[in-house]
Task: inverse folding
């Protein structure tokens, strides 16, 4: 079972007990986070596709710690101009552990969709049969219509 979630402006493919690193979550006070922006999910043989998000689906997460990544250096050197610049940057991030993935009432929705799809398929079959019956009957021409009118 896995899900594709949107968190802090990035998308992640997560499974239960995964640890991911996201941009700093400074506004969160609790150690538990509920992410309801689930874009896609797979549970067993069932697939859940959102437009844009899967209704009723969410992912439970625990915040482990806030850390800073290794320094990234941007060095610019201009040849024969005796000009250079060096800038450094350390990204603030949060480590998050995925506790559980829930798809909620989407299972009921998929069953209802399947029932609707089978109902639509039956309607299409009956429409095709009716069309085929019309094609098998010979079309009445103007001459045959005139003969029938005289017979009456």
Result:
């Amino acid at each position: 079972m896995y899900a594709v979630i949107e968190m802090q402006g990035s998308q992640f493919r997560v499974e239960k007990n995964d640890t991911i690193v996201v941009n700093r979550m400074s506004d969160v006070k609790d150690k538990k986070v509920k992410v309801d922006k689930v874009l896609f999910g797979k549970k067993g043989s069932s697939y859940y596709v959102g437009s844009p998000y899967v209704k009723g689906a969410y992912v439970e997460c625990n915040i482990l710690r806030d850390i800073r990544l290794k320094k990234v250096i941007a060095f610019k050197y201009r040849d024969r101009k005796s000009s250079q610049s060096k800038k450094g940057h350390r990204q603030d991030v949060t480590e998050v552990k995925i506790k559980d993935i829930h798809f909620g009432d989407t299972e009921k929705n998929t069953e209802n969709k399947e029932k609707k799809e089978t109902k639509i398929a039956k309607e299409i079959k009956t429409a095709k049969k009716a069309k085929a019956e019309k094609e098998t009957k010979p079309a009445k021409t103007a001459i045959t219509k005139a003969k029938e009118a005289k017979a009456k």
Notes: The two ends are 73 Å apart (CA to CA). The chain has a mean pLDDT of 86.
